Amino acid sequence: MNRRQFLQQSALAAAAAAPGISLAGRSPALPKGKAKHCISIWLGGGMSQIDTFDLKRLGDPKTRQWGSDYESIGTAVPGVRVCEHLPETANVMDRVTAVRTVNHDVIDEHAAAINQMHTGRPVSGTVVYPSLGSIVAHEKGAAAEGAPAYVLIGYPNVTRGPGFLGAENSYLYLTDTETGPAGLQRPDHITAERQQRRDALLGKLRQSSRERFGEESAIGQYDKALEENLKLGGPDFLNVFDLKKESADLRKSYGSEFGQRCLLARRLVERGVRFVEVSHNLNFVNGTGWDTHREGQLNQHILIRELDHAFSTLIRDLESKKMLDDVLIVITTEFGRPAGFDGAGGRGHWSKSFSCVLAGGGLKHCGAYGETDEKAQQIVEKPVSVPDFFATVHHSLGIDPGKSLYDGDRPVPITDRGKPIASLFS
């Protein structure tokens, strides 16, 4: 028995001996999740919950009177109200759950909170934790031959990466929806014959490396990544990036550049990609993105309207293709905003209670989950930790959130003791 097997058996024995504790920290029995793919929409900067999905009394930034910056409107779910700039989303809220009580205790600073909201854990000096997308890629793999498991439509960053899971569980990334990922296609001046010669030379170098370094993990990971890239360089996969194959009306309904990224995400999961992250802050159309200080707050409605068009159209598009139960849509952000306004009319950072959103994925949606106080700052009912939110995503995809992965011989649970939101499954 090696060390890993010993640790596994010891953990199982200890759990079995303790009354009331499930094996390996597994979640209580819930109906199996139905989702096969995940589209994760990232709102970098910190979406203001009190101005979007958790509206309270109307405030006034000019007089620094705390409250929401916009009026609320009713939705398809009785009693659930959202921002007036989310009218299309309001009509599909019966397929949506705004989780209003997400919270974490990481410092209210962007880098630390971004890491928390991508890995489900604080930054560690000893372990580089894998991102949500990389864990899904590791556990489920691609849903079709010739497709990557994980695509990032945004800028690469270590928080989105595979951590100790290795490069084979990393992402394919792009920032331009019209050209696709850079580096996959062979340049025009490289003929097929020349490419074959290059492949033969590279093959000799790879063989030499294996003979010299044996089963060195970095060499193996490089080989797997190279093989994956060669698969993705053909027309079969690259055709997915030709958005002109969609009707002009559909492309228009998705709206802006961000909307086109969401359309591409749908095409990617249709082709077999398991997890797609779509960033909404590549171009700061309001001046600051979702980090709504100063003029960012003044023009926040521009971002909210973009989100409304793209998100609601994505839901309807998936539904029209009978894919909505198969695709879980997730909206996350690093933290929320306090109810009060600062001297320049913007809002600060607030992680004690904020909203993240789930849609589709075969869940039993309720419009809104959890309750906050009159300022949307303190949790009144049904708190949801970041590990709980991640556990909900994992369970919906058929991944046990209590399972352990391994950093060398060190067992690391997929979530940090997270439990899925049971009512969304039962």
Describe the structure.
Helices cover 32% and strands 15% of the residues. It is of the alpha/beta class and 426 residues long. Strand 14 (404-407) and strand 15 form a beta hairpin. The chain has helices at residues 3-17, 87-90, 110-119, 132-140, 192-213, 217-232, 235-238, 248-254, 257-271, 295-298, 300-320, 386-396; strands at 37-42, 72-74, 81-83, 96-103, 150-153, 172-174, 275-279, 327-332, 354-360, 367-369, 371-372, 379-381, 384-385, 404-407, 410-413. Strands 1, 4, 5, 6, 7, 8, 9, 10 and 13 form a 9-stranded mixed β-sheet that branches. Strands 2-3 form a two-stranded antiparallel sheet. The chain has a two-stranded antiparallel sheet with strand order 11-12.
What is the rounded Rg?
22 Å
CATH class of the largest domain: Alpha Beta
- The appropriate CATH architecture of the largest domain is 3-Layer(aba) Sandwich
Query: How many domain regions?
Result: 2
Distance from N terminus to C terminus (CA atoms, Å) equals: 40 Å
Q: Please summarize the sheet with the most strands.
A: 9 strands, mixed
Q: Can you tell me the overall shape?
A: globular
Main features:
nine-stranded mixed β-sheet, 12 helices, two-stranded antiparallel ribbon, Alkaline Phosphatase, subunit A, 426 residues, alpha/beta, 2 domains
TL;DR of this structure?
This protein has 426 residues and is of the alpha/beta class. The protein has helices at 3-17, 87-90, 110-119, 132-140, 192-213, 217-232, 235-238, 248-254, 257-271, 295-298, 300-320, 386-396; strands at 37-42, 72-74, 81-83, 96-103, 150-153, 172-174, 275-279, 327-332, 354-360, 367-369, 371-372, 379-381, 384-385, 404-407, 410-413. The radius of gyration is 22 Å and the shape is globular.
